[in-house]
Design goal:
- With about 270 residues, this protein is of the alpha/beta class.
- It folds into 2 domains: about 170 residues, TPP-binding domain (Rossmann fold); about 80 residues, SIR2/SIRT2 'Small Domain', CATH 3.30.1600.10.
- The chain is built from 11 helices and 9 strands.
- Strands 3-2-1-7-8-9 form a 6-stranded parallel β-sheet, sandwiched between helices. The chain has a 3-stranded antiparallel β-sheet with strand order 5-4-6, with no helix packed on it.
- Strand 7, helix 9 and strand 8 form a beta-alpha-beta unit.
- Helix 1 packs across helix 11, helix 6 packs parallel to helix 11 and helix 8 runs parallel beside helix 9.
- It is elongated, with a radius of gyration of 20 Å.
- The chain starts with 6 loop residues before the first helix and ends with a helix.
- The structure holds zinc ion (ZN).
- The site of zinc ion (ZN) has 8 residues, from loops.
Length: about 270
C-alpha cells in the first residue's frame, strides 16, 4: 500500500477542505512537533527527562529553593537548543500562512522553531527560550548575549538575584495576555489543528475544547490518538509522524487553492 492510500492520508483531504473554507485557523502545538528536530518529548522518558524528571527539576519551587539544581537542568536544556532547526512539520505550517490562510499558532513549545520556520502569529503559552528574567527587578537579558559559565548560576547584573529563563515552569501561571489571546483565537477559529500534543497540561490544553464548543472543526495530528480524540471532540484524527502528514496536507491545500484561483479567473 502506498503512503497516499493509507487511511490517514485520505482523511487529510477532509482537513484540507475545511482549511480552504476557513477564515481563521488555530494551530495548537506541543512537543511532538519538535521531536523530529531532535528535541526530546517531556513525556517520552528519554535522555534529558529521564535524568532530570521535569516534575522534580523544572518547578518554580526548585528555582526558589535549589537554584543550583534548577540550573543543572537548564544548562542541559540550553545545550539541547543549540543549533536546532525547524523540521518539515514547522515548515508545512508556515507554508499554510504563505498560501494565504490566516493562521494563529498557540504553542506549548519554548524552542522558537515555529518562528524560525517563518510563522508570524505565534503565541508562546509557556514562554520562550530567548530571554532570562529577573523576578525581583524585572530586568530581561537576551540569552544570545549571555555568556554561560558551566556551574555558575546566572545572576541579575542590577540586583544580583538568580535569573530564570522566561519560561513557564511547573507551578507557575501562564502569561495572562498570551493565554487570553489564545482563548480569543480558539473562540474565533473555524478549524483547530491540535498537533503533537498529549493535551494534558492545563490550562493550555483547554484550547481545542474551547474551539470545539465555539463550533470549529477540531483535527488531531499525532502518532496515536490522545484523550482529545477519545473525548469525541475531534472531527478528524490524522495518525502518523507529523513531519510526513503535515507536508502532505500543505501540498493538498496548495493544489486546492491553486484550482480555486484558476476557477475564479476563468469565470
Ligand atoms: Zn534584578
Amino acid at each position: 500500500m502506498s503512503e497516499e492510500n493509507q487511511p490517514s492520508y485520505a482523511r487529510c483531504r477532509n482537513v484540507c477542505d475545511a482549511l480552504v473554507a476557513a477564515k481563521h485557523v488555530l494551530v495548537f502545538s506541543g512537543a511532538g512537533v519538535s521531536v523530529p528536530s531532535g528535541l526530546p518529548d517531556f513525556r517520552s522518558n528519554k535522555g534529558l527527562w529521564l535524568k532530570y524528571p521535569p516534575e522534580e527539576y523544572a518547578t518554580i519551587e526548585v528555582f526558589h529553593r535549589y537554584p543550583k539544581k534548577f540550573w543543572e537542568l537548564n544548562f542541559q536544556l540550553f545545550k539541547d537548543f543549540d543549533g536546532i532547526e525547524p523540521n518539515a512539520a514547522h515548515l508545512a505550517l508556515a507554508k499554510l500562512e504563505t498560501l494565504g490562510l490566516k493562521v494563529t499558532i498557540a504553542t506549548q513549545n519554548i524552542d522558537g522553531l515555529h518562528q524560525a520556520a517563518g510563522s508570524t502569529r505565534v503565541l508562546e503559552l509557556h514562554g520562550g527560550k530567548d530571554n532570562l528574567k529577573c523576578l525581583y527587578c524585572k530586568s530581561m537579558y537576551p540569552v544570545k548575549d549571555w555568556t554561560f559559565v558551566e556551574g555558575e548560576i546566572p545572576k541579575c547584573k542590577k540586583c544580583t538575584a538568580v535569573l530564570k529563563p522566561d519560561v513557564v515552569y511547573f507551578g507557575e501561571a501562564l502569561p495572562e495576555q498570551t493565554l487570553e489571546e489564545a482563548m480569543t483565537a480558539a473562540e474565533d477559529c473555524d478549524v483547530c489543528l491540535a498537533i503533537g500534543t498529549s493535551a494534558v497540561v492545563f490550562p493550555a490544553a483547554m484550547l481545542p475544547g474551547v474551539a470545539h464548543k465555539s463550533g470549529a472543526s477540531v483535527c488531531e495530528f499525532n502518532l496515536e490518538p490522545t484523550d482529545l480524540t477519545r473525548s469525541g471532540q475531534v472531527a478528524h484524527f490524522i495518525e502518523g509522524p507529523v513531519e510526513k502528514t503535515l507536508p502532505h496536507l500543505a501540498e493538498l491545500v496548495e493544489k486546492a487553492m491553486g484550482n480555486a484561483t484558476q476557477e475564479g479567473s476563468s469565470s
